[in-house]
Amino acid sequence: MELLLMSDTHVPARAKALPGELLDLVPRVDVVFHAGDWVDTATLDLLRARARRLVAVYGNNDGPDLRARLPEVAYAELEGLRFAVVHETGPARGRERRCAERFPDVDVLVFGHSHIPWDSPAGDRLRLLNPGSPTDRRRQPHRTYMTARLSAGRLAEVRLHRLPHAV
């Protein structure tokens, strides 16, 4: 099972549209995760129309239209692995402990907000993944997103993809 992870797309505030490379992947993967800060409903509608399955939440920059259509936390079970998606997890310091306590029954937590790619274990089971932002690198060297594969009930081949600088 192939997964695509993204967050903090901020369309049209930070970019006019999602990068073509990312859009091309959407219909080819089994599940798309979006960890919030969409900014516009058109991007949500676009991903819902193209994705086989979308697991998504709203973020702090998302207004009432998006909040009415998306949860603050979303859950999915895929091949026996329990996923949760949330936008914000608080400061980096202590994140692993906080998330392990807040999500004791989750195997993988996808989050956003910071625009900083993150991949770390938390506790004895939880894995934290932040794909960064495909449209707004902020203080990061690259715009990013992640892909992953599920195999035999395990998260495998988690990969951070760097996008070229916007023109």
TrEMBL record:
EC number: 3.1.4.-
InterPro entries in the cross-refs: Calcineurin-like_PHP_lpxH (IPR024654), Metallo-depent_PP-like (IPR029052), Phosphodiesterase_MJ0936/Vps29 (IPR000979)
Protein's UniProt keywords contain Lipoprotein: no
KW Metal-binding (keyword) present: yes
Highest taxon in the source lineage: Bacteria
Cofactor(s) the protein needs: a divalent metal cation
Pfam families (alphabetical): Metallophos_2
Keywords: Metal-binding
EC class name: hydrolase
Calcineurin-like phosphoesterase domain sequence ranges: 1-151
Family of this protein: Belongs to the metallophosphoesterase superfamily. YfcE family.
Protein name (database record): Phosphoesterase
Organism: Streptomyces tamarix
Phylogenetic lineage: Bacteria, Bacillati, Actinomycetota, Actinomycetes, Kitasatosporales
